[in-house]
Amino acid sequence: MRSTGPAHGRRSITSRHWMGNPGDRMKTDEFAKAMRRTYDLYFLGGDYGRRYPRPNAATLGFVLANGGRDAQRILDFGCGDGRYCLALLECTRAHVTAYDISASSLIALNARLSGTPFRGRVSLAGTGMSQLLHTYAAPYDVVLMLFGVLSLIGDRAARIDTLSQLRCLIAEDGRLVITVPSIARRRPVELLRHALARRLGRARPPLDEGGNIRFTREVSGKPLTFFYHLYGVRDLTDELSQAGYAVQCCEAESLLPEWCVTQSRVLGWLDRKLSRRLPAVLGYGIRIVAVPV
Ligand SMILES: C[S@@+](CC[C@H](N)C(=O)[O-])C[C@H]1O[C@@H](n2cnc3c(N)ncnc32)[C@H](O)[C@@H]1O
């Protein structure tokens, strides 16, 4: 399903919610190209799918309980190879727009869709944010940014800008469901190294901002460089508020790392029990539902 003109009911982008300027846009584009390269390589050989073979069951349940089950239209922003998209197609009747900057991720998702009865309920969208804003099936009942998509978008201004643009695509009574990596649990060595570089005046944008890190990991024998913004609850809530959202619910996503809970169903089940009472920031990820205000 694909609409051709501006969608009915879409929120207008006001100056209050649009924080970019031409200089920021350029930096954001360069940044997105670097992320696209990294994730293209990550998805290309199937490494991502082997590391995270299925959705985090607790997060899938959270999405379903927060509007997903009855949604008619869902946007999976930063869908990757579609582990959530496929699960949502299976357990809802929704149409899903799956958007990602990585062409390899969409190729992987397309391959996973072939042979399923779901192809007619999916739009694959990857030609850039402006296409997404003007040609797909908005307004959405639920917009997803799962497993750190927001963290990969660049500096604070770029992240707020993206959140603001997505806000314009959410229905009046719709919801945004986000999960992000927690600053209390992830990459302490890199956090320290980048904090030191900032203190010494050696950090270049976007690494001059607290919580931003860059690191290289070997994937199939090739070094891949990743950028993350690691979040605390306060800065996530604050960015959402700047972009025109109110937080409805905030909790820990899991106690164990994502690869553990998605590779082993037993560990996933155990983790679900253990993480129930965990403070949000102590989760491996932080899970939030936000609504447009
Ligand atoms: C860690 S993966 C998560 C994928 C998927 N949501 C999941 O849970 O498996 C992050 C995804 O965000 C995508 N991404 C990175 N920057 C993006 C951007 N600016 N816009 C859209 N997607 C982006 C990457 O290509 C990658 O597929």
From TrEMBL:
CDD domains: AdoMet_MTases (cd02440). SUPFAM superfamilies: S-adenosyl-L-methionine-dependent methyltransferases. Transmembrane segments: none annotated. Residues 1-24 are annotated as: Disordered. It comes from the Bacteria. Residues 75-176 form the Methyltransferase type domain. Gene3D superfamilies: Vaccinia Virus protein VP39. This is Methyltransferase type 12 domain-containing protein. It comes from Trinickia soli.
